[in-house]
Structures are given as structure tokens and as C-alpha cells.
Automatic annotation (TrEMBL):
It holds the Pfam family SLT. InterPro entries: LysM, LysM_dom_sf, Lysozyme-like_dom_sf, Transglycosylase_SLT_dom_1. Residues 90-126 have a biased composition (Low complexity). Residues 30-74 form the LysM domain. Its EC number is 3.2.-.-. It is an enzyme of class 3 (hydrolase). It comes from Lentilactobacillus sunkii. This is Putative transglycosylase IsaA.
Length: 208
């Protein structure tokens, strides 16, 4: 019976010892009474802590303002380091998330801009090589009675259906390479070509 009681007391004592050891490790802090000449920085150096950790543990608004006799809880270096490490990891994670959230719209914006530019370029090419020349040819047919297909053939031969085409060896300009206009407006070029036709006929384009 005595052996059993001895074992129980020994086990209890060991458990109590482990409990207090764990509590001491968990708290990992020291209470210091401020003396004359003390500063938070000096105390942090003395107890291997940090100014930020002491400020946080004691809710200090200003680390430079402490008074003689004030009780300060001084966290250990381990708890201070863990706190700072966690804060650093959290800050890094937040920064990475913000960077990702801002980079995605930027990439999408660039893609949208590229798509819009491509569409605008395609539309411009179509207007120059197709619809503009066709509209001009149809208007020329109305003004001259010559078929639109003939005027399409002329504009393609003369300018590749480009109202901005300029002959490098003369002042000939536009869809029908007129010598009398420098405008890039295809409607003005049509009016000019119609006047030439009524004055010179198709011979002006070597089709007499």
C-alpha cells in the first residue's frame, strides 16, 4: 500500500512540475519595475526582448513615456520573434495577394487593348480595300453610267483601292490617281474622277 501511495505522489509531483514548467514556457515573460533612468529600449536590450514587443504587451502609446515604479511585462525574445515573424508572413501574404489582384486586371486590360487594336486595324483595312472602293465605284456608276465593276477594276489597277495612294513619280493621287486632287476623302475623289470622265471619257484611264 505504501508503495502504491509513493508512486501516486511521485506521479502527481511530476505532473505538477511539468504543468508549471509548461506554464512558465507559455507565458515566457518577465515583470520589471521601472527605475530612474530606465528606457524601454534599455530594458528590451537587458531582457533580450524588443521595443515593439514591450509596447504591445503593455499597450504603450509612446515607448518614450514610462514612469518610475511602473510595472512592465517583458516578453521573451522567443515570443517577440514569433510575433514579428507571424506579422512579417501575414504582411508578405497580403502584399502577394494585392499584387496578384492588381496584376490580373492589368493583363486583362492589355489583352482587351490588343484585341480592340486588332479589330480596329481589320476594320480599317476592310474599309480601305473593300467597302470604300465599292461605294466609290457605285457612286461613279451613278455619275457616269459606267458599271461599278469597271470602276472597281480601275481603282484596283491605279491605287490598289487605297484612297491615300500617292504616285511617287507624279502628283497623281487617290483611288483613281487623279492629277487634280490631293484629298484623301474618297467622295471628293469620286467627284473629281466624274468631272474628268465627262471631260475626257475613259481615255483618261487608257480605256477609250
Amino acid at each position: 500500500m505504501k508503495k502504491v501511495l509513493s508512486m501516486i505522489f511521485a506521479t502527481s509531483a511530476a505532473a505538477i512540475g511539468l504543468f508549471f514548467a509548461g506554464s512558465a514556457y507559455a507565458s515566457a515573460s518577465t515583470i520589471v519595475t521601472v527605475k530612474s533612468g530606465d528606457t524601454v529600449w534599455g530594458i528590451s536590450q537587458q531582457y533580450n526582448s524588443s521595443v515593439k514587443a514591450i509596447e504591445s504587451a503593455n499597450n504603450l502609446k509612446d515607448a518614450n513615456v514610462i514612469v518610475v515604479g511602473q510595472k512592465l511585462e517583458i516578453p521573451s525574445a522567443n515570443s517577440s520573434s514569433n510575433t514579428q515573424g507571424s506579422a512579417h508572413v501575414a504582411a508578405s501574404t497580403t502584399t502577394a495577394q494585392q499584387t496578384q489582384s492588381y496584376s490580373q486586371p492589368t493583363q486583362q486590360t492589355q489583352q482587351a487593348t490588343t484585341t480592340q487594336s486588332s479589330q480596329a486595324s481589320t476594320a480599317s483595312t476592310t474599309a480601305t480595300s473593300g467597302s470604300v472602293a465599292q461605294q466609290a465605284a457605285q457612286l461613279m456608276e451613278q455619275k457616269t453610267g459606267v458599271s461599278a465593276s469597271t470602276w472597281m477594276a480601275i481603282s484596283y489597277r491605279e491605287s490598289r483601292n487605297n484612297p491615300s495612294a500617292q504616285n511617287p513619280s507624279s502628283t497623281a493621287h487617290g483611288l483613281y490617281q487623279s492629277l487634280y486632287t490631293t484629298s484623301n476623302d474618297w467622295r471628293e475623289q469620286v467627284n473629281d474622277a466624274a468631272r474628268i470622265y465627262h471631260s475626257q471619257g475613259m481615255g483618261a484611264w487608257a480605256l477609250g
